Amino acid sequence: MAVLTAGVASVAAVALAAPAQADPDTAFAKELQSYGIYGQKDY
């Protein structure tokens, strides 16, 4: 019974989780490029 309760709680936690949001790295990329460090843009 405890396993079933844990399973239901796990499924509910995943189903009701809020989606993650990331901020664009434009300011960070600009700062790195001012030092001559260039890389892939992820935005």
Automatic annotation (TrEMBL):
Which keywords annotate this record? Signal
Tell me if Signal is a UniProt keyword of this record: yes
Q: Where is the signal peptide?
A: 1-22
- Look up the domain of life of the source: Bacteria
What is the protein's name according to its record? Answer: DUF732 domain-containing protein
**Organism, per UniProt?**
Mycolicibacterium diernhoferi
